[in-house]
Amino acid sequence: MAFQISGIIQHIGNTESIPYQDKVFKKRELVLDCSYRNQFTGQIERANYPKFEFTGNHVDDLNDFNMGDIVTVSFSLNGSRSEKDGQVRYFTNVQGYKIEKYQSRYNQQQGGNQTAQAANGNQPTPTQGACQSAQQAAMESARNAAAPAAPNFPPAVDENGNPIQGNNDDLPF
């Protein structure tokens, strides 16, 4: 089963070459910042820094990205069991197999790119499962947008339905 998550690149490791039988096994680590942030203050409410392992031909996929880029990583969970000295241990590996620049579903449907939408102050909400760091950027954009106009309510009236002139409505506020 495949999963996806979006976040900000925090670390891209160097390629490691590990001899295995008569071949060389290559792997490289990637760490994302997918922390949950308060939408009003931007403060981290729950830290989340998943580490992914890219192997084989997918190692070179990380060459096109830099720290600070907002990306979406497709990954799978692989588990293994080990028994040594009567002790059974289980291991889980988070195996990344695809990485791409972050785009929301709205952005993909419109055929545009996120940068153009952000310039228009029209940044979409991230898709389900996307990192709240990307959501924070959308909230920041919304905060900087102009406030909507106040609703146009009808004037206050007296008991006969006549408009009240001035501030004689007997309301305490």
Automatic annotation (TrEMBL):
Residues 107-123, 134-150 have a biased composition (Low complexity). Pfam families: DUF3127 (PF11325). InterPro entries: DUF3127, NA-bd_OB-fold. Residues 124-133, 162-173 have a biased composition (Polar residues). Residues 107-173 are annotated as: Disordered. This is DUF3127 domain-containing protein. It comes from Segatella copri.
